[in-house]
Amino acid sequence: MKAIKKIRQLGAQWETQDPFLFCAYHLDNYPKGNETLGPDASLAGRNIGMDFHGKDGWNMYHGTTVPGFPAHPHRGFETITVVEKGLADHSDSLGAAGRFGEGDVQWMTAGKGVQHSEMFPLLNQEGENPLLLFQLWLNLPRASKMVEPHYKMLWNEDIPIVTHQDEEGHDIRVKVIAGSYQGTEALSPAPDSWAAQKENGVEIWLVTLASNATWSVPKGAAGLNRTLYFYEGHEIITEGYQIPKEHGLDLISDEEITLQNGNQTGSFLFIQGKPIGEPVAKQGPFVMNSYEEINEAIQEYRQTEFGGWPWPSHDHTHDREKGRFATHADGTEEIKNV
């Protein structure tokens, strides 16, 4: 294999390479919602509070009435939450909040420590509430692990999309979340991110190939870690291999690779970055350089709760009538159409 280093099967948590820590993949075909923004369906037979088994094609995760992840802490890394379908309600210990989805991306730098909740409100009471969400954990280097927490919204309407065709006229669509593609630059990431320095080569793209389309992943600089995740479609053919969906390909960054898509629309997540190359100590929601620093993070969280929790419940959701919005810790508010 000239350009492929490794092929792996995908699960719910996708293995990544430095500077990324992992990618969580959520695909839930939620039913219609009820009055409290949860599923209008029986929760019998589910391990409520720890529901990850995909019963009936969806999960409650750590939620008890609304699916999602009630208040929990982070320190030492970033979350990049891409909600292609459905909605997410954000609340945090700094008093910031938001509702985003249907193509929006939240870029959150946990830095020295923040609590937040991520709930998935089921607003549609007449039909299904599908959710398709990726959450990438992007590491922070030692110099940035204790920066102030911050989050930034990349609204769907503003994220650049490059469309073109292969030689046979088949459509190719690339949504540029980070980095650039064919000269089109992404929106700026969070300011303290590893991705904020162009020389680190961080790229995040969502790629859609029409059936039978041919697409070449362009060469990058040498020494970068890059992975292509094939999560929806039938199969692709590359370098003599037939690869079914739900597989990831670790690629050599300074080699071009050409994909021939199969007879269904193919969907891919592409990520790339220069490795940070520092020791990584991980325990639950904390990512530092040593386990001594992990213990310090745990002790500080027990004492301060990273600012406490200003919301009425740990699984806080916003009013049904709220559209897409973001309220930041400094009081700045962004409001988008539903």
UniProtKB/TrEMBL annotation:
<dbReference type="InterPro" id="IPR008778">
    <property type="entry name" value="Pirin_C_dom"/>
</dbReference>
<dbReference type="InterPro" id="IPR011051">
    <property type="entry name" value="RmlC_Cupin_sf"/>
</dbReference>
<dbReference type="InterPro" id="IPR003829">
    <property type="entry name" value="Pirin_N_dom"/>
</dbReference>
<dbReference type="Pfam" id="PF05726">
    <property type="entry name" value="Pirin_C"/>
</dbReference>
<protein>
    <recommendedName>
        <fullName>Pirin</fullName>
    </recommendedName>
</protein>
<dbReference type="InterPro" id="IPR014710">
    <property type="entry name" value="RmlC-like_jellyroll"/>
</dbReference>
<comment type="similarity">
    <text>Belongs to the pirin family.</text>
</comment>
<dbReference type="Pfam" id="PF02678">
    <property type="entry name" value="Pirin"/>
</dbReference>
<dbReference type="InterPro" id="IPR012093">
    <property type="entry name" value="Pirin"/>
</dbReference>
<feature type="domain" description="Pirin C-terminal">
    <location>
        <begin position="208"/>
        <end position="307"/>
    </location>
</feature>
<feature type="domain" description="Pirin N-terminal">
    <location>
        <begin position="64"/>
        <end position="138"/>
    </location>
</feature>
